[in-house]
Each structure stands twice: as structure tokens, then as C-alpha cells.
Amino acid sequence: MEGMLEEGMGGSQHHDHNNPCVEIAMEIHKVETPPKRSSLQKLKNRLKETFFPDDPLRQFKGQSCKQKWLLGFQYIFPILQWGPHYNLNLLKSDVVSGLTIASLAIPQGISYAKLANLPPIVGLYSSFVPPLVYAVLGSSRDLAVGPVSIASLLMGSMLRQEVSPTLDPILFLQLAFTSTFFAGLFQASLGFLRLGFIIDFLSKATLIGFMAGAAIIVSLQQLKALLGITHFTKEMGLVPVMSSIFHNTKEWSWQTILMGFCFLVFLLVTRHISIKKPKLFWVSAGAPLLSVVLSTIIVFFSKAQDHGISVIGKLEQGLNPPSWNMLHFHGSHIGLVLKTGLITGIISLTEGIAVGRTFAALKNYQVDGNKEMIAIGVMNVVGSTTSCYVTTGAFSRSAVNHNAGAKTAVSNIIMAVTVMVTLLFLMPLFRYTPNLVLGAIIVTAVIGLIDIPAAYQIWKVDKFDFVVLLCAFFGVIFISVQEGLALAVGISIFKMVLQMTRPKTVMLGNIPGTDIFRNKHQYKDAVSIPGFLILSIQAPISFANSNYLNERVLRWIQDYEEEEETKRHSDLRFVILDLAAVSAIDTNGVTFFQELRRVLEKKGVELVLVNPVGEVMEKLQKAGGANDLLQPNNLYLTVGEAVSSLYSSMKVVSSSQGNEL
Amino acid sequence: MEGMLEEGMGGSQHHDHNNPCVEIAMEIHKVETPPKRSSLQKLKNRLKETFFPDDPLRQFKGQSCKQKWLLGFQYIFPILQWGPHYNLNLLKSDVVSGLTIASLAIPQGISYAKLANLPPIVGLYSSFVPPLVYAVLGSSRDLAVGPVSIASLLMGSMLRQEVSPTLDPILFLQLAFTSTFFAGLFQASLGFLRLGFIIDFLSKATLIGFMAGAAIIVSLQQLKALLGITHFTKEMGLVPVMSSIFHNTKEWSWQTILMGFCFLVFLLVTRHISIKKPKLFWVSAGAPLLSVVLSTIIVFFSKAQDHGISVIGKLEQGLNPPSWNMLHFHGSHIGLVLKTGLITGIISLTEGIAVGRTFAALKNYQVDGNKEMIAIGVMNVVGSTTSCYVTTGAFSRSAVNHNAGAKTAVSNIIMAVTVMVTLLFLMPLFRYTPNLVLGAIIVTAVIGLIDIPAAYQIWKVDKFDFVVLLCAFFGVIFISVQEGLALAVGISIFKMVLQMTRPKTVMLGNIPGTDIFRNKHQYKDAVSIPGFLILSIQAPISFANSNYLNERVLRWIQDYEEEEETKRHSDLRFVILDLAAVSAIDTNGVTFFQELRRVLEKKGVELVLVNPVGEVMEKLQKAGGANDLLQPNNLYLTVGEAVSSLYSSMKVVSSSQGNEL
Description:
Largest interface: A-B, 103 and 103 residues
Number of strands of chain A: 8
Structural class of chain A: mainly alpha
Oligomer: homodimer
Number of helices of chain A: 25
Radius of gyration of chain A: 33 Å
Strand order of the largest sheet of chain A: 4-3-5-6-7-8
Strand content of chain A: under 5%
Shape of chain A: elongated
Number of domains of chain A: 2
């Protein structure tokens, strides 16, 4: 053990073992200031880090003019990047995965459109045009584009606040298209203005809570179809839906319940199989279409629609009609439409980007968040002019796409073509499809959004994040979908601000046998050096915390002085602040140092700064009165050097005092 | 030079000078986890740091029960602390300073009440009761309590939005008292709930800009009295006031302008003398009262009130009438009253606390911010029931108090007694006091709020803070007092959030001859170690920045790889993240590490963590899947140890590979 200590650090080997570090003769290194840059350069740098952290223009550097044009086109249309190298092998994989997701997209499209209170066919329209647009503009290879449950729910419930989809279906449809237009415009602007980081404010905890809450709300809505209730509440909350269900028990239809239950069990079992064995992805992928076909045949031959089982009814045949003449940019509902566009836009964007990033990380390629936003945004703007409502990359369908071996965005094209064929020729077949099977499909799809293991993981790792999760969850269930989300985001940001207001300060001690200083609370072996109080401040010092830090440092000093009285060790001579973790200061931060120094001087204690980063050095230098803070004997590169240098000077002083006596 | 390098660090002295650090045989120290604490303990600790950073109950520890009661009473009524030791010497100082600030308080009280559109006598009432309350409850020895310019301006301008002080003076007065009541209630609640840190959000830059803007707005309002205009605009902004002045040139009265100009020059000269020679504080302290007396005598004998010089007029005699029956807690103006109370409350609180802290620091005693808030709040609640409007510790008067040698809050009592004598016997004397002299007194008082040297200092130190300052300044001048303030606070918080979203990552290099690693940009000598990319992340990793950090780290790696191609040095083998400055992580932060590790693994690069703080260690441990991150060969105490250990293992691998070939 002794030997190890000796070996630890060189210099004078015969050091005092009580204060192993402080006796080591050490070379003192200078704290340097970074090279001077003008304010303009700094601003440029700051703006670049804020808006272009991924440096998208990197590839253009040092290329010829022609090459730059080509790269530019490829940048805007990623299809030009991978298109030329496309081959038959890739096509085979893409056809298989494209047909697989089409068999999911058709029943889900119809179901989600009903969830948004829109005509079922709009769901199919939305699975035709947007995937084609995305195939040209998008950079993810796995994203399966189409309507999704949560955005459908949000749009349906928000628009229903002002317009009834049953009493005024045309106006409702117009508002839905207009909201989609604004959602797309908003998404594309976020990408274009490089403000994509806004969606980062939806933390993991927020999203898990929100998704779970939304899944429950969506599932509750399906009870209308699954129980066969005709007079169902128009509200979304848990309380009104439950009371509506139990006040209308007379309307429950046993035929509907029986048939719905069977299909629900079938779908859940197939889902379970595919989760257990990902190779059998086609079991759950094919089940919805099979259920639709089966249930339609049953209804058709048993004439069950006359026995209380409600069916979709007649659907029009043909491709998307144009809808730009249905966009409303004025009138009394413009506020609602803007709000709906904003919220569904940001939520569907979050899902799309998260899905894209997840699969890109799995296959080890990069998706550019801001470019994806432009692609999704343009897709929705185009969609809104061709009778589509809001679409994005759906998580469940993208997972199936990935498992089915999709290689490029061509799988989206295959899916779109399949949907086109359906729209052109197969629409009459859906006439007798019962609503209950759509309900069962939605419930099966959204149940995967309730991620209990992830919630448990959050509970284990971070209790505060779990509180955020609960707020989002209960907010969505009991208040409303959008307010629950806002609540959770608000709390997350509040926590962040609070963290800035109350940064950590920890006391450092010397790890015996080294010149390393670490948190005494974390490292049990770390010892204090008598006469020294060594603190590490772990946040930028700004207006929001300079007063707190002042109080907190003074409390550390009081603690030291009280301990001093009881343990009778030497007087406090130096307060050393380790500034390695202080990444920035503002003018209040500069004042903090000046005032602290003044207060300490009155107590006869010296303030020593260790390892300030470039920005902090610069600002302290610029603040004239703080110059004293940056004297060589108040400024060191490491805590070890500071302690060793000051400790020896202390001994010189005390020994010379001894001589005088 | 060679010698210095050799001396730097011990161990094996014969190291390779190209990579001075990495060859040093080093002892490897373990990264420890802090002792386990339950979530409840952590929560308790967090709450304590948030609400009781100053540990106010510290003095009660280990005292007898009787002693605790005594200390408790002394805590609530600081007068019990210093009262028993009060002596004649202290009294002498306090009488001198009390009379000095009274001679300022009387003319300023009348002037500020007019600024708030209230009857002048309310200004005197407000200089009588609140100082007495503060003397009992307050813990500052220098604060001179009474009405202040900015709070008066705010209250007057906000209430005037709904009620005219000329058309409905009684209602206006009632609303002023009710606002004062709410201001006091809000101030006391902030202190009681220990939310005092809310006022920290008014940064130094915000306050300097705001004060300067408000001073200009206040001075512009005085042009009414100084030019003798009768039809003056009711608005506060620069533009309407200037146009009102130049559209009413016919109303300008040369007698008023001449007299006003003389007194203004006189007051400014005396102010200048006192600034140059602080010992002559009584020159500027006595000048306002002298001006009032002189101007009153001139008007009385020259009958100037008949020649276009407006005078205060008749004032009632007698002490404060009760006003609790004038408080309105319902009715149509309740929203306005609450808003006014909130804003004037927070602004006057900020001034009072800042003044208290400034003088406490000068005389080296402590004021407890939250206790002061309760004192100021109670003072305003009591004031609102005794015909006083909002009061606080005024900066200019407190400075005079301090210079005049005030020792305790008794100087406030002396001032209050002097004001009482004035109210009882001297009120008729003010009948002929011209309004112009009040205007001159206000202009002289507020001109000190324009602190150009401080603004220049901010410009020098922090350009962004200067932008905040300008926003506050121009917001106040061109939009409105409260919106200018809100704008500046909003921008400050936005900057803070942006800083969290885009934390700094810097590349570290080895300082030759040591095992110290520092920012390569700041330390020109620092050298990279081939095969290693060493980054320091300088902020807590949270949902707001985990995506950015991921992108940023990957960009560092790309940069390394590009450099590799051109400079042909060795392949990237290790990415070392120095986590010393990562003071906290949340669940998104845990995911960041897991994902980064996965991406790096695919590139054949190892992720190494250095010096995680306790909380980060704990969370990474709890997140099961992250366990691999905390293997001994992926986790080191210092960058030096990590590099030296990994470098030697690298050499072992390459040499054994060499043997195999």
C-alpha cells in the first residue's frame, strides 16, 4: 500500500503522508486565454452551432461548380442519390415490404379516418399521394408514410370543438384539409428555418406518458363501435366516455360485442406472435386485412347489418379529387384551424422524426432532421390539395416495413400503387365491412403505444422524469389531449430552469497519493486540506443563480468555521473555486466573483480560481475591476497545483513569522 | 526545456517526448458511486437547496427550549435583536441621519405621489406609517423607507389605463390602496413561501436598461410641470409626450420655465457636488427642502400663482386616516388591481432587496432576502389600510442615510416622527409650493438611475447582456414600462434555455509534460493523442440537448476522420468523454450514452467515460442496459489515467498482432 502511494506521483518521494498531495514539488502551469475573436466571429459561431450543428454544407466544400449543382439537387431530392444505383435485388425486397405495409395501410387508413371523424375514403387518399411525395423528398429508407392514430385523434377532437362532423360534414372536411395545409406549412418552415430543435422539448418521458394516455383515449372511443352504441358522447375524456357507456347499456348489441370480441382476440394474438418472433412479422401485418375480408364476408352472407351490426356503407370509387378549392384561409374558424394545424403538425412531426431516427440508427445511416421536416411538411401541403389529411411516418407500419426487409423508399411507392388499385377497383368490396372490425384494428394498433417497461425504466432512473410522465398521462386522460401535452412540456422546462437557478456546488478533497481532487461526498477516501475550502461550481453562473451561489458559498464557509471551532484545526486561509464546469458567465456572474472576493477579503480569506474556461477568462479580463481575480497567485490550472503552491507559501509565511518571534 | 518536462511528472522518467503523457506508468484509480440515499432523502435535499439555501434555522440548532423561543421572536422582530443594546451614541448618529432623510422624504413624498396621480398628501402619509413598520420587522440598518419613483410611475400609469385620476379621483385612490394591499400580500407571500429567487430573474442588464428607460419616461412627464403646460397627454411613451409638448407650444409659460430652469440647475449642481465629495452629502440632501421653501416664499410674495405658475394648493392637516374601508376586493377593476399589485410589488421588492443587499455588503452584515420580503410586504399591507400607497427601500435616500451615518432602523423612526410633525402642523405652508419645483426634484432624483458607466461595462463584458439591456430600455421608452420589462426578462430566459439546448463541447489535448488535458482551442500547446478523440461536454445532458449532442459528437468524429485522411495519422480507436462538467442527466441523457456507444461500436470505436459525477453514475447504473458503459476499461477517474491505460493496452494489442503476422 505504501509502495503504491509512493509510485502514484513522482517529484519528491519523501512526502508527508497526512497531506500526501500538498508536499509534492510541482511545476505550475499558466492558465491561458483563447485566441482573440471579434464579437462578429463569435456571433457567427454561435449562430452556426444553434442552427447548423450538423454542418449540412460540409459535403459541398472543395467541389467543382458542376459537382456542387449535382450535390445540391441530390440534397433537395434524395431520390437522385440512391435512384441511379437502384437494382433488381433491392426491388424484390421493396416489393415484398411494400405489399406487406399496403395490407396494413388499407384497413388502418379507413380506421384512422373514422377516428378523425372524416369519411373513410380520405384515409385511403392519404395513403396514396403523401407516400409518393415522400419517396422523392425523404431521406429515411424505412419510414412507411400514411395517417397515424394520435394525429387523427387530435385533429378530430380539436375540430369537433367548433364544428360537428355529422351536422356539417362539408365544412368539417374543409377545416381538416386547411389544418393539414397549415400543419405542413408549419413543419416545412421549422425545417427550413432550422428550428427543428423545438421538437426536442418533447422529452422521452413526456412522449411515453402522452402516447399511453392517447392510446387509452383512442381505445375508449372504439368502444362505440365494439359495443354497438349509437348515442355516444362527443367528448374524449375518461369520465364522460365511461358515463356515456354505462348510461347507454340498453344500446349494447350482443352480436356486435361477440363478433368484435372474436376479432379483437384474433388480432391481439397475431400481434403477440409477431412480437415474440419478429420473423413472423407477416402474421400481424396480414391479420388486419384478413379480418376485414373475413368480417365483410360474414356480414355479407349473414346479412348481419340488419341485426344491429353497423357497416361502413357505400364508398366512392376513384383516385383523390383535387381539394385546393376547399382550403379556407379566412372566416371565423381560422384561429381553430391554425391551432389544430400547429398541434397536429408538431405531434406528427415528432413521431415521424423519431421513427426515422430510430431506424436510421439501427441500420447505421444518418437522417437530417431539418431536411426530414421539410419533406414531411411538403408532403402534407401537397396532401392538403389532393384530399389528404395529416400524415407522417407511422411507428407500427415502419417497424413492419423494416422487418419485411424494405431497402429504400420504393416500398412506399409500391404501397401507394396498391392503394391506388384499391381506390380504382376494390372500393365496393368495403361496403359491408363492419365498423367493429375497424375498432378492433385501431385498439390493436394503439395498444402498442402503452410502453410499460419504458415507463418502469424511467421510474427506476429518474423520479422527476416519471412525474413528468404521469402529468402527461393523466393530463391527457382527464383534461384533454393538447393540455396534457402542454402541461408535461411546461413541467420539463420548469425543471430545466430550476436546475439553472440552483446549480450544484460540491466540496472537493484530495484523493490520497495523487494530485487529484474529487467530490468528498462521492469519494469517501478524499481528504480535506486544512486551511483550504475547495469548491466546484457545476453550472454556468448567470443572473438566475448568482445570488444563490453567493449565499451557498458563504454557507460552506460558515460550515467550515463551525467545524473549525469543534475540531480545532487551522483557520480558513483559501477558498478555491474549481471552475472547470462553469461553461459560461454573464455580467451578473462577473459581479458574483467580485463580491465574493470582497467579502472573503474582509474575513482575511483569499479567493483562488482554478481552470476557468476560455469564455470565463475573457469576460473576467474584460471586466476591469476583476483584474485582481486573475493574478498569478489567484489563478491556477489545476486544483493540485493551486494547493501545492499555496500550501508551500503558507509554510514560508508561518516559518518566517516563527523566526520573528 | 527538456529538464522541465522531465520534472513535470514522475513515474518512468524516460518517456517518449512526442506523446509525453501517455507513456507515464500510472496508477489507475476507481470511479466511486456516492453513498446510497433514498429518493425521499434526495427530494428533501433538493427541496432544501431550492427553498432554504441560506439555512435560516441554523442558529436554532442545539439551543434550549427557552432560548429557541427568544431566538424565534428575535427572528420575526429583528428590533428585539439590536433594541436591548441600543445606546445614546447610536441615537446621536440616527437622529442626524433621520433628520437628513426626512428633509429629502418630505419633498420627494409629495413629488412621487403626484407622479402616481395621487393627492400629494398621500406621499407624506406613506412616509410615516411604513417606516415605523419596517423599523420593527426589517433587518437592514441602512434602508430608508418610503415611496419611490419607478413604483409610483408604474402604479399611476397602469391604473390610469382604466380609471381617470381627474374624473374619478376617489375610485382611483381606492384602486391605488387595493393595489398596494395586493403588492404587499404578494411580496410577503414570496418571502413566506421562500420563492424570493423569482426576483433574481431580473438580471443586472435588465435592471439597468429598465431603470434608465423609466428615468427618461419619468423625466418626460415632468415637462408638464416644468413647461407649465395644462393640456398634457395622458400617455407615457416618448412619441406621444414629445408630440404633446410640441403641439402645445402656446401653453408654455416663460415664468414657469425660467423658475423651473433655475431650480433644476440648482438641484443638479448640489447633486454634482455631493457625488464628487461624499462628505458633503448634506448639500444634495438639504437642497430639495431648501428649494421647496425658497420657491414657496417667492410664489407667496410675488403672487406668482396669478401669473401662470401652478401651485399645489390647499392640503389637509392631520395624520393618516384609516383606509381599510377603501379596499375593493371585487368589481370590474379587480383584474387591473391584481396586475398592478403584482408588477409594482415585484419592482419595488427588487429595488428594496437590492438596496438592502448593497449596504449590507458594504458594512459586512447579512440580510435575509426572504425575511426582508416579508417585512416589506407586511409594511405595504399595513400601509394600504392607513392611506399609504406602495413603498420600499429607496436607493437614493438609503445612500444619503448611509452617508449621514445611520446606525440602525431608528433613523427611520426619527424620519417618521419628523413627517408626523409636518403632517400635524406644517401642511398649510405647502399651499403656495409651485409644481415646477416638484418636477425639478423628481428629475434630479431619477437622473441618477441612468447608469451609463455600468451600461458601458456590460457592453464590454457581454454583448448579449447588452442586447437585453437595450431591449428593456427601448421597450420601456417606446412600448410601455411593464412590456419593456417583460420583454427583457423573456429574452434573458430564452438565452438561458438556448444555452441548455446548445451546450459546449470542446476537444481536449494533453499539455506536454503533464497528465493534464485541456481545451485545445484555449491552450495552444495542448497536443492530440493519435487514435484518441477526447471531448468535454459542458452542461447537464437532458431532453433539450441529447439530440444535438449526438449530432455534435458525430461531427467531431467526422472531422477527425477527415483529418486522418489528409494527415494520415492513426485510426480513431477511442472516444473519451470528460463528464466532469455534466452535473446531471435525465432519461434522455442515459439514452444518449447508450445510442452513442452503439453507433461507435459499429465504427469499431470504443466509448470511454471519465469522471462522471455521483448523480450521473447512479443513473447510468440504474439504467440496466447502460451497464456496459461502466466497465472498468470504459470508466476512468481522470483523462490522463484513461489515456495512459488505454494507450498501453493499444500497444500490447498491436505488438501482439505484429507477433502473429
